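Sequence in, structure out. Go.
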Amino acid sequence: MGQYFDNEKLPSKISSYSCFIRGKKFTFYTDIGVFSRNGLDFGTRLLLENINLDTIGNDILDIGCGYGPVGVFISSYGYHVDMCDVNRRALHLACKNLSVNNTCANVFYSNIYDNINCKYSCIITNPPIRAGKDVVNSIIFGSYDKLINNGFLYIVIKKDMGGKSIILKLKDKFNDVNIIAKKSGYMVICCKK
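Output:
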């Protein structure tokens, strides 16, 4: 089976699940060849439960959006959200999930920041660890140039999957770096430019 970010030849078998995030109910359609197709993954849930919605501004980028749980959740609060991914099947599902949950966002293809031509008040990501260190580092550290001054980067990452070294490198780049949540080996990191 191919990786979830390279699924052109995989069969399709769409399914759905419902879940509550911060007391709101959401329904998500998923498919073979997308990350966490059987339900909301632990890291994404931890991330969404700990984002400070009062400080993120109004122009949000969900990079590596997958089938869209982050972008759908954030846009449900009325924020302007751009959602991008390299997985075209996931992008199709993200559009469907925005519609099913009565939210809207701008969904488009981008290999990391290749098609990103503006700056954001907040960038949110659960980076694709299986895509490799170079891709993960490009997503995380490339965010700096795509944030406005005083903009925020929110990341969820497993402590034993490079989390410690990433925090040290983030502290060299960002003004303020904090671990805002830790649970079951995952960390949610908030960085301010």
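Check: The mean pLDDT is 92. The chain has one domain: 15-192.
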